[in-house]
Amino acid sequence: MTEVSLADRVLAGDPRAIARAITLIEDESPAGAALVRAIFARTGRAYLIGVTGPPGAGKSTLVDKLTAAIRTTGRTVGVVAVDPTSPFTGGAILGDRVRMQAHAGDAGVFIRSMATRGHLGGLAQATSEVALVFDAAGKDVVLIETVGVGQDEVDIVRTADISIVMIVPGSGDEVQALKAGIMEIADIFVVNKADREGADRAVAAIETVLSLQAFAPGEWRPPILKTEATSGKGVAELLEAIDRFRAQSESSQGTRRRARAEWRLRELMAQRFMQHVERRVLQAGEFEQVLDQIAARAVDPYSAVDSILRRAVVEPEPREPGEPPEPREPLVLDHVGIAISDLDAALAFYRDALGLDIEAAEDVAPQRVRAHFIPAGNAALELLEATADDSPIAKYVSKRGPGLHHITLRVADIRSMLATLKAKGVRLIDEAPREGAHGSLVAFIHPASAHGVLVELKEAQGSGPRAQARSSSSRSEVLPEP
């Protein structure tokens, strides 16, 4: 079965294709990523409902009853039920499907249990992509049931369009409702097993905390509902509250989904970067060696990460034979430094003969030099005039005479560029960038490697050629000796 045909079958709602697609995604295989690419444009229509709460709150039972209630409205449902993974065996008892056997013969319901596989936050790492598969397959609603979580495991808010937090009375769990994380993610509070003693106290505890918050006129205030999931009591009212929230938050749903996309993008980038480091940057066993060095206090974690990061960013990925290299960030001419011995003669040429505007001189005391900048298109000319006989410019003019002193190239990533040049055997005056004015970073390449020209690299934070050029002239470090 090709991935194109699998994607088409998922879009057609084929149950076997949905199951196969979810398996590929859970296995984090390249085929799973290719499938998501193929179906992504056809998603964004399903409404994602997250149900979370402490263990034993009755989440699975409530999801089962809520699924039945949604089906009575004619809407189709996909259910993602997440179960914990054993830290010892790696296995998981996917018991949620056992509790939802009543929907086994309903073609409008697809239930998938997933193991966390050690992922924290109450969800499995692939939960978002599984929801995408249900969405692409035409499910109107996707119910996501988390692992029984504590107050800080709140990934569901980054995954669902609405978050339902369940509390069970009589076991101290009402105290969990007072925790900041749970209070901040809940769009609806559900006190389940409301027939138990203490249900009213749980409702009152939540209400007390909500009363401390200020809600603007028209802003959604999380309702507190009581349910008895085993009998289905209160489920209809819960579905009504969900629909009310959906209608009221429709205008802001795009903002919430954008935030969800940002979180998932950052998570994927971190995951892919770690894969790149482990597969293409570190040698076999090197990661363990770094861990041993950290444990022995031979290196600190920050230095170890910086070292790995430099290698990961600079070293290109291996290319297939005949494959063209990836395009590089182009270098941009920032300015040209010209050493002069006679300012009046220089001004007579650049200003009077060529008609260029010369900015007011800037004295750079540590370098004992005066700089005159001449904007020229997207770059600039820098006339460097010595103010003392022992300045670098005076020594340069004495040794070589007036003329070209250096050229400055602006780069996007100076550290990456320096590492690349060093790897290619280029002789550097600065193997690490130094700080320049206005937050810029600068470094010099030795003239021996640049055919007699002193080349300065600069990663500038300013905007526009004048600001970028000026940042070099007013920096405090000393120009290299000739």
State the end-to-end distance. Answer: 68 Å
Strand order of the largest sheet: 9-10-11-8-12-15-14-13
What is the share of helical residues?
25-40%
- The number of helical elements comes to 16
**Average pLDDT rating:** 80
What's the number of extended β-strand segments?
Answer: 15
| Range of strand content | 15-25%
What is the overall shape?
Answer: elongated
Class from secondary-structure proportions? alpha/beta
Rounded to an integer in angstroms, the radius of gyration calculated over CA atoms is 32 Å
Uncertain segments of ≥5 residues (pLDDT<50)? 86-93, 118-123, 462-478
Q: Characterize the main sheet.
A: 8 strands, mixed
What does this structure look like?
With 482 residues, this protein is α/β, with parallel strands linked by helices. The chain has helices at residues 3-11, 15-26, 30-39, 59-71, 96-99, 127-136, 180-185, 199-211, 235-248, 253-281, 286-295, 301-314, 343-353, 392-400, 414-423, 464-473, and strands at 47-52, 77-83, 109-115, 141-145, 162-167, 188-191, 224-226, 332-340, 362-364, 369-376, 379-386, 403-410, 434-435, 441-445, 454-459. It has an eight-stranded mixed sheet. It has a seven-stranded parallel sheet with strand order 3-2-4-1-5-6-7, sandwiched between helices. α5 (96-99) links the parallel β2 and β3 (109-115). Mean pLDDT is 80; it is low at 86-93, 118-123 and 462-478.
